[in-house]
Amino acid sequence: MRRWRKYDIYIVAFLLVLTVGCFIYNHHSSEARGVSEYSTALKAYKDNDFEKAYQEFGKVPQDSSLKHPALFRQARCATNLGRTENAIKKYKKIVNTNSESAIAPISEYNMAVLMFESQDKRAKHHFKKIIKKYPTSDYAIASNYYLGMIEAINPPKNKKRLEKSKERALEYFKNYIDKAPDGRFAINSVKAIKNLDKTLSNYDNLLIAKAYYANGEYDNALAFLQATTVSESWSDFAKTEYRLGDKAKGNYYAELGLTKHASTTEPADVYEVIDNYITASATRKDGINKLLSLRLKSTGADYVSYLYCSEVADSASKSDCFKAMYEKYPNGQFSAEALYNLFLAKYLQKKYYDAQRLGFLHMRKFQNVKSSPAVTYFMAKIAFKLKHYESANSYFKEVITKYPDSYYAFRANYNLYKDDGFLPFLALKEKPVIFPYRKSLDNNLVVKLAYLKDYDFVEELCKKDKFIQSWISYEKGDYTVSAVLARNAMEEQSVKPPFDDLRWRLIYPLHYYDSVNRYKGNNNPIILQSIIKEESHFNPYAESSVGAKGLMQLMPSTYSEVLSKNNIPSSLSIADKNIAAGSLYYSGLKKSLVNKDLYAISAYNGGIGSVTNWFSKIIYNDTDEFVEQIPYPETKNYVKKVLRTYWVYGNIY
Questions:
Q1: Which residue(s) pair with 543 in the sheet?
Q2: What angle is formed at CA 473 by the lines to CA 467 and CA 479, rounded to 5 degrees?
Q3: Which pLDDT tens digit goes with each residue over 106-138?
Q4: Residue from 490, 487, 528 nearest 511 by CA
Q5: Does domain 336-421 have CATH number 1.25.40.10?
Q6: What are phi and psi of 191, to 5 degrees?
Q7: Rg of the Cα trace of the chain?
Q8: pLDDT tens-digit readout, 231-249
Q9: Which fold is adopted by the domain 513-652?
Q10: Does this model's pTM top 0.90?
Q11: How far apart are the first and last CA of the chain?
């Protein structure tokens, strides 16, 4: 046997490198061709040229990561061309070769629906498989509807089997309604249940009533509620009557349920009824007082007490009210807020040791609740006043780290680095809103589809990801919906990502920032941008219940006055004119209020007369004491929201 020589090793190494190089080249070549072919096919698909799209999607290479999306699109093309069997084959290929992909459940579901529509008995097997394999998916929920229809439209002739088939159908339809009362098949499920001609239980009637209510059919909801037990469905009766405009009946069911049956009702339903009851009253105060007179003893009692204490104007009385509430409901749903109000009252009274004791209790008892950032922040201020400077700085840093997008993070930053001034950010560097994830599952398949602008497919694959839904709304030009969706999604995150995370840009985009800079005058443009975001969520046609209009929500009288006093060109767009007028109005407020943004922001919401009145009525030594004692809850929250938004914009951009 010939011994290996040195040049033999070099040859083998060269061949190995060549092989790997060819593999990498071919892989990249396949990916590049895949992107090119998919892009061409997608254009044809969007132009409704399904025959051409089908052929072009078929050219995507087998080893491209876009092959399965291409197969999916081919199935859609075949469906649109009426080639059902061809579509089923394409879907089946995806399911059989890539069952763990995000495309698999939607492919199997679409395949099962096509089988159902063509009366193919295999549909039943696939719908059951979807429920078993993807139990929490929307496809599993919808599969219940189709399984119910399969049982209902093909009834066996044998009487005993017929009854069992009806029972199965009823359970499938109920499962669908229970999980998706406002779903696209909810009313169809109700109609199918009626056709089954089965005796319905109290629970069945209540489910149907909820489906009708969720779909805005309140008369039908009420009809089915009549067949239920009031003790179980009082909250549904109350909500339905309120929707139908019968306040008297709504109040009747509300009072009956709140006094007798609230303990067995979901808290969210109880709170909703309480809110409806207050809205139906002559005034908010009247509604709260009437509820308080009912002397509630179960679910909802602490909420009514909390609402009552929040309405008390006198600070001493408010403190006593929250003290009594906390002692009565120490573990209630609103006990954290009650304890926070007690804590803050002691701070404002300069009883720092008492406040500190309550702060320690709050931090120990309640983790990451609504009032946690404020408590941590004021614990820092207490420590500073007690000359525990290291502890104070530690608390300030904790606020910034744990609650980075809060108003109190903005205030903590100021206390740590006062050299930067009250408003440390003066301008923003524009960055585009792009797809919110740099990486995703499925070998970054969703990211690839996003950059190929296959929005419909991305939307289907990521129905439950609100950030992606937000991005799709953004790409379609619906900026208001986009910002709100992303904001709600971020609120659900227990740990907030760093500010370079792309998801923040969806919540805080820089719409109209060019115009803001153009018409800012002597104002900080980030404050104006923050006002626009909080006032209108970038909707230039927004109109409030009291008549305020546009991006900066100016009252018509204010808008006309500013336009008449200043030389604002009539040729400007609606958005630009509103921004120009809003900026001038804000400048006027600021000039009249010792040139301070804090007071100008307060006046923008609460009115300049109110703010000047507060100067003589509120006893305060610093910014925090002023803000926390603003007597209008709406204005207090508005100030915090605008300054929080300013802070986050500065950190992102």
A1: 549
A2: 100
A3: 999 999 999 999 999 999 999 999 999 999 999
A4: 528
A5: yes
A6: -60, -40
A7: 31
A8: 999 999 999 999 999 999 9
A9: Lysozyme (1.10.530)
A10: no
A11: 70
